[in-house]
Design a protein that fits this description.
This protein is mainly alpha-helical. 47% of the residues lie in helices and 8% in strands. The protein has six helices and five strands, in the order ααββαβααββα. It has a three-stranded antiparallel sheet. The chain has a two-stranded antiparallel sheet with strand order 1-2. Helix 4 crosses helix 5. The model has no long low-confidence stretch (mean pLDDT 90). The system is composed of three essential subunits: KdpA, KdpB and KdpC. It is a single-pass membrane protein. This is Potassium-transporting ATPase KdpC subunit. Belongs to the KdpC family.
């Protein structure tokens, strides 16, 4: 009887040790090696690097841009805004007074900032936060509505800014999933001549 317990204990300990080596060592190492070999840019965070190796952000994470010369991303509910450590949405329902009031204020601010009339339709992504609060993209419509403000602030022809939007527009995934979108960081870096 005692011998059977020791056999079962030895078997269990060997199984745990084998699974620990396999699942905590060999498998992660194999996935990391394949990712580095096949998709090194994506596996390392899709970092956008300026001259002298300065990292300016990730193509996968939104960040705040202030000022009229920059395209503005979606609002963020992550911490104080675009805080990756506090990623997440507000979890407010569509009838929550706080959400309704916040969106109304954002709509008014967006119209004022971009010189739009009171009847101009505003894209939802311009006034609502994404589920993660870190969405790096905006809709093409949102970018086009900001184009006049950005062009004026930079002293550029609006057609030049619209061309940059078109050049940096990413289509639907697999041609059918999602909507066309523009990466705000890449667009702003391109306008700054740093992409």
């Amino acid at each position: 009887m005692l011998k059977d317990i020791f056999i079962q204990l030895r078997t269990a300990l060997l199984a745990v040790a084998l699974l620990a080596v396999l699942l905590c060592g060999a498998y992660p190492l194999a996935v990391w090696t394949m990712a580095q070999g096949l998709f090194p840019w994506q596996a390392n965070g899709s970092l956008l690097i300026r001259e002298r190796g300065v990292v300016v952000g990730s193509a996968l994470l939104g960040q705040r841009f202030d000022g009229t010369a920059y395209f503005h991303p979606r609002p963020s509910a992550a911490g104080g805004g675009y805080d990756a450590a506090r990623s997440g949405g507000s979890n407010l329902g569509p009838t929550a007074k706080k959400l309704v009031d916040t969106v109304k204020k954002r709509v008014a601010d967006y119209r004022l900032e971009n010189g739009l009339g009171p009847e101009s339709p505003i894209p939802a992504d311009a006034v609502t936060a994404s589920g993660s609060g870190l969405d790096p993209h905006i809709s093409v419509r949102n970018a086009l509505l900001q184009a006049r403000r950005v062009a004026k602030a930079r002293g550029l022809n609006e057609a030049v800014v619209r061309k940059k939007i078109a050049d940096l527009t990413t289509g639907r995934d697999l041609g059918i999933l999602g909507e066309a979108r523009v990466n705000v960081l890449m667009l702003n870096l391109d306008l700054d001549g740093k992409r």
